[in-house]
Amino acid sequence: MVQSLNRLKESPSQTAGPYVHIGLTPNFCGIPGVFEKDLGTDMVNDKTMGERITVRARVLDGTGAPLRDALIEIWQADAAGLYNSPTEIRGAADPNFTGWGRKATDMVSGECLFETIKPGRVPYKPGVLMAPHITFWIVARGINLGLQTRMYFADEEQANADDPVLARIEHRSRVPTLIAARLDDVYVFDIHLQGDKETVFFDI
Amino acid sequence: MSIDPKPNRQPEIGAFFQRDRSWHPPAFTPGYKTSVLRSPQKALLSLDNTISEITGPVFGHDMLGELDNDLIHNFAKPGESAIGERIIVYGRVLDERGKGVPGALLEFWQANAGGRYRHKKEGYIAALDPNFGGCGRTITDEDGSYAFRSIKPGPYPWPNGVNDWRPAHIHFSVFGHGFAQRLITQMYFEGDPLIWLCPIVRTIPDRAAVETLIAALDMQATIPMDARAYKFDIVLRGRRSSVFENRLEGN
Ligand SMILES: [Fe+3]
């Protein structure tokens, strides 16, 4: 025998199930009055610095059908590339930007919209910047462990080409699965759970 | 969202321990049919945490309403209460190093005492309880502890096999201090024979892992003539020490 490391095991995940909205977006699913507002609804206010954008996201299953019962959370830096988090030690983030959003996908169209700003660049390690990106976390019925991925911006071609995370993707044909196209002020990001266009998900 | 400035507490900024994916359910679990078309099939891209995952939103106690941790009353008409077996659920949020996680946001949701959810897609014939909404939330104290009141949810049938029933359970969503710790899981109740029959429970490969999701009846934490108590601890990913790592400061 040797000494015990006294580590605990992470609690195992279980699916969020079909009724995740009751817990995380109760006002959205017809349970008003318990919480004033669903958490994560508003990321910006009129004083938020940076370029306003809308992100339109969908999650598609192995048949190409959009999930109408998914829940998406996003996390991103502010316009200056700082996170609104106590773990951010490089400086104070914009107090008028939460950096975190949560949306249920629409029960008919499967779409959800995030009103946010374009994030600044953040370091990968000292001296190396990542391209602007938004971190996604996706849960739904049938997803046993929340899926982590990232959205990059199609109009950041040079930054994307230099991005050290995108550079790690061995099969280059899969890189575009992480890049959202721009239509006017809207970035469109389709997350494919399976198939030829399966999104690159992260073990991070 | 407000951030509690704790000047005497240096934030921990290390990357998180690698997730043990053999302890979690795999994505593809055909016994749980919905997973078949919703499971990624390609290998995940493994990456050490960057600042995008080490950081995360933190929530202040000031966002909580007085009844947020009382599902017996938070949807009930004044003077009324939800029907069912009154319980207290309490425990701690810890990390893999055994340290309490303060300031963790816990959100929970559940069916009513008859096993019926308040949701438009819910098809079970059990009655709705007009005084039960089914959601609540709380934030852990300095040592990671939390507690809330509820009623014991009923088991319910669901369309998977022709006769599959969910054991009584409460869904939990947990925010630690980093987005990489984000976790959703479910709490089961000691002694429920349905646990071991459930296709969703059985997505977890290891029986010992399932046992960590079963709350223990604690007769020392009950309120006599009011509520029984169940203890449920939750473990989030631990952080590596950053003492010997290059810091991201100054970039
Ligand atoms: Fe459930």
TrEMBL record, chain A:
Pfam families, A to Z: Dioxygenase_C
Protein name (record): Protocatechuate 3,4-dioxygenase alpha subunit
Superkingdom to which the source organism belongs: Bacteria
Entries under PANTHER family matching the protein: DIOXYGENASE, PUTATIVE (AFU_ORTHOLOGUE AFUA_2G02910)-RELATED, PROTOCATECHUATE 3,4-DIOXYGENASE ALPHA CHAIN
Coiled coil, from the record: none
E.C. designation(s): 1.13.11.3
Protein source organism: Aminobacter aganoensis
Class of the enzyme per the UniProt entry, highest EC level: oxidoreductase
A GO MF term: ferric iron binding
Record's keyword annotation contains Transmembrane: no
Family note: Belongs to the intradiol ring-cleavage dioxygenase family.
Keywords of this entry: Dioxygenase, Oxidoreductase
Residue ranges constituting the Intradiol ring-cleavage dioxygenases domain according to the UniProt record: 36-174
TrEMBL record, chain B:
Gene3D superfamilies: Aromatic compound dioxygenase
GO process terms (BP): 3,4-dihydroxybenzoate catabolic process
Ranges where the Intradiol ring-cleavage dioxygenases domain occurs: 89-117
Keywords assigned: Dioxygenase, Oxidoreductase
EC number: 1.13.11.3
Alphabetized GO MF terms: ferric iron binding; protocatechuate 3,4-dioxygenase activity
Family to which this protein belongs: Belongs to the intradiol ring-cleavage dioxygenase family.
Protein name: Protocatechuate 3,4-dioxygenase beta subunit
